[in-house]
Amino acid sequence: MRLPDRWRLAVGAVLLCLAGPGPAVYAADSFDHSAFDALLRANVTPDGLVDYDAFQAAPSFRTYLGGLYAAQPEKLEPAERLAFWINVYNAYTIELINRHSERASIRNINKTIGFSLGPWREELVRAGGRSYHLDNVEHDIVRKQFQEPRIHFALVCAALGCPPLRAEAYTGARLEAQLEDQASRFLAQSPQKTRVDLAARTLYVSPILGAWYRGDFGGDAASLGRFVARYLPAGPARDLLLSGRFELRTSDYDWRLNLRPKGLH
């Protein structure tokens, strides 16, 4: 159900008041992610490990989430709108982890014997005047509306097998550079997730590319190889992928929580 704008803004204002003092985070034609940006910079390591306790204790995080509900993303231009929804997904994944006090794996959330909604179907997201679960945000909004394969390197599911959580918020002005950097980190700088075995003429990729979302990268091995090759330096590995004459295999996925160990900065 979608609330009228006047009610959405009113509810958002109430949420902001309940969250405590803080800067305004929404306007009719823009959205200020600076509160989330400051939290990410302070509480996420360069390799994407997260201090979940710090987010849980921060009043500014509650303020930011309240602002997401009051926002009007449909009035943003495309790059700003995509940045908004990426930040929504990542912020509410953090909220999901903390809501369940989970510190081992996101897959433990809503895990029961028999039928289970799982973590991605819990309707906890409040954004743009509506309620969603994380699957809605990823599949019905981000993937469907934008058809941008690099979002798979920006949406972070709180697992070590995911791309690293970026230690800054996404913004429309910097979105292209941010997505390119995330893709490069995942495809060219993370050999445990993506690597080329020249001797075996084999490309190993994360299940994100090789199984779950393969269609977003062209669907077949040759298309996937060409996509990965964009982020590799000139040389034999890149040439192999561009040739299309290689075997494609999927790497193991690490579902352990991307938790920052105590004392690590």
**Which percent band covers the strand fraction?**
5-15%
What is the residue-mean pLDDT, rounded to a whole number? 90
Strand order of the largest sheet: 3-4-5
H/E topology pattern = HHHHHEEHHEEHHHE
**Form type:** globular
Task: Provide the helix percentage.
Answer: 40-55%
Rg value: 19 Å
What structural class should be given to the helix and strand makeup? mainly alpha
Distance between the termini: 42 Å
Describe this structure in words.
The chain is built from 10 helices and 5 strands. With 265 residues, the protein is mainly alpha-helical. A hairpin with a 4-residue loop joins β3 (195-197) and β4 (202-205). α5 runs antiparallel to α6 (134-146). It is globular. The relative contact order is 0.13.
